[in-house]
Specification:
Keywords: Acyltransferase, Transferase. The chain is α+β, with helices and mostly antiparallel strands. It contains six helices and seven strands. Helix content is 35%, strand content 34%. Helix 1 packs across helix 3. The protein is globular.
């Protein structure tokens, strides 16, 4: 039986991270406002990105996690979860982003991985509120968030430029007490 592992990146993950991003370059770019430079798609680019992730997490600015699928014979990096726009003080909030390799879509892996990551966000990182903004055309991503209890809070018109197009986004959020209540009812 396959098991999902969600953990912070380490330098040892650089080669697998490179492979994930090379294999899914177009798939990941479809929804991302960030146009990656060519250097990102090199081993040194991945080492540099992991170095930046580690620095940001040590400074409580953002948290990046690797998603691994593990079974009896293998251990494969299949996706990522990020908690960004960290705000402390009276807000205790962040925004979550995530992506999974195209060939792993539709198996429930992202829902389970995000559930594990949210447990880390609420219990270990002590966030009160986690938000997300999703292109309404990204139905699969909206379903993942809905299954985990995120509540729609608004709609932003022409919110973010992806490629050459300004895209709308659905705003959703999940509160710590909602996450706890949903997980106790399982």
């Amino acid at each position: 039986m396959a098991q999902l592992i969600v953990r912070p990146y380490t330098y040892e993950d650089a080669e697998e991270k490179l492979q994930l991003h090379q294999e899914n370059r177009e798939h990941f770019q479809k929804w991302s406002p960030v146009k990656r430079k060519e250097e990102f798609f090199t081993l040194q680019g991945q080492i540099d990105s992991i170095k930046e992730y580690l620095k940001n997490s040590s400074e409580d600015k953002r948290y990046d996690f690797a998603i691994f699928l593990k079974d009896d014979s293998s251990h494969k990096l299949i996706g990522e979860v990020q908690f960004v726009f960290v705000e402390r003080g009276p807000k205790q909030s962040c925004m979550v982003g995530y992506q999974i390799g195209e060939k792993f879509n539709g198996h429930g892996y992202m829902t389970k991985a995000l559930e594990i990551a949210l447990k880390i966000a609420f219990q270990e990182l002590k966030f009160h509120r986690v938000t997300s903004e999703v292109n309404p055309e990204n139905k699969a991503s909206l379903r993942v968030l809905e299954k985990l209890g995120f509540v729609k809070e608004g709609y932003l018109r022409k919110n973010l430029k992806v490629g050459d197009e300004w895209c709308d986004h659905v705003c959703v959020a999940l509160l710590e007490e909602e996450f706890i209540a949903l997980n106790h009812s399982k």
